[in-house]
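User: I'm preparing a small set of examples for a lab meeting where we compare how different chains pack in three dimensions. I only have the primary sequence for this one, and I'd like the structure in token form so I can line it up with the others. Please keep the answer compact; I'll paste it straight into my notes.
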Amino acid sequence: MATSKRQTVKSMLRQSYEARVKPRIRMEATPSSILDEAKEIIYGDREKTYGAPDKNLKMIGDLWTAYKGVGFSAEDVCQMMILLKVARLANDPKHRDSQIDLCGYAALMERIQK
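Assistant: Understood. Below is the structure token output for the 114-residue chain.
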């Protein structure tokens, strides 16, 4: 009889777990890759907010040129921003936002080169 009660309790606990936890696990979105997230950002909100990347990056380059007196192209801006992200990742290599941003700037550079 004691074995039967233990099995019943185990069965109840399993059912309770499955009823409470499994639906939440199934409902959670699967994590996207950093490349997917970078693509979503550069083709989504950022472009809506800052405009076409070629124009925005050129404006940044022009401002940096005026400030430093050295020419900066849109590609230079992407490369400099990638270097900034590399420097930040040196402190925390697993920082997801910096990884995403680094991929985003590399993708932007490809976009403006087309």
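A couple of notes for your slides: The mean pLDDT is 85. Residues 31-113 form one domain.

User: Perfect, thanks.
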